[in-house]
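It is worth pausing here to work through a concrete case rather than discussing structure prediction in the abstract. The textbook approach is simple: state the sequence, then state the predicted structure, then interpret. We follow exactly that order.
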Amino acid sequence: MWSELKKAIASFNIPADWIGIRTVKETSTTRSVRDGLPQLNGKSFTVGAMLEVLVNGCLGYAATNSLELSSLQAAAETAYKQALAASEWWIHPFRESERPKVVGEYKSPYLEPLDALSPGEINDLLVRICQTLKVDDKIVQTIASASTIERESWFISSNGSEVYQKTLSIGTHYGATAQDGTVVQQRSNNGSYANCYQGGLELLEQKNLWHRVRQIGEQAVELLTAEECPTTRTNLVLASDQMMLQIHESVGHPLEIDRILGDERNYAGGS
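Step two, the predicted structure:
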């Protein structure tokens, strides 16, 4: 991959001050079981590259889903034209020093590779989780799902950057719905895919898995007769899924450049 990307940057025929290419390959799987019955078994593969070009103090961007030299060249030209057109209106001029040379490598640590279990073995485990969640006849629905992502990325720039990263991650979701008459309650393992970590399949069946699964089912039943939360002023403890959402909304969105500039755009990709 490095030789192809170096060849691409060397061949770009654009008078840019700085050029960067980030290439990403990603393989992901999703397995889902509801009430002990498989619902989804999918696998996908994506590949693409993002071109970043600095011209007259302004950065331009373009992407392509082809790693052919001609496609990378076309994306670089698009990014160049974008930066050139926007350079008349910049508020802060960027320089090459703000994209310094970086060289490094990172790989997720793991004990078992993501393909250590077959799809059938993963499904069997999810079926067992659904069966364990049903601790009482009042449990009317159970769900168990797992997703894996293997992502490789290469970053190279005209001033010598070479960064390689390979991350492995796995996310799980277990949930139970309980019903007693008109009262319906749900309990899960802190929300859908709140438990997502870097590592291998050792994260799928951790030592406290079955205790936690039974606890989820039991707590779903307990919620049917639980008292309503009091109306009072008190300390708040956020679970991991809610904390991720809070950071997304309260930190992530305010850092978007269009909002910083006071011109919020309500469509994806605007900033």
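Step three, interpretation. The mean pLDDT is 91. The chain has one domain: 2-226.
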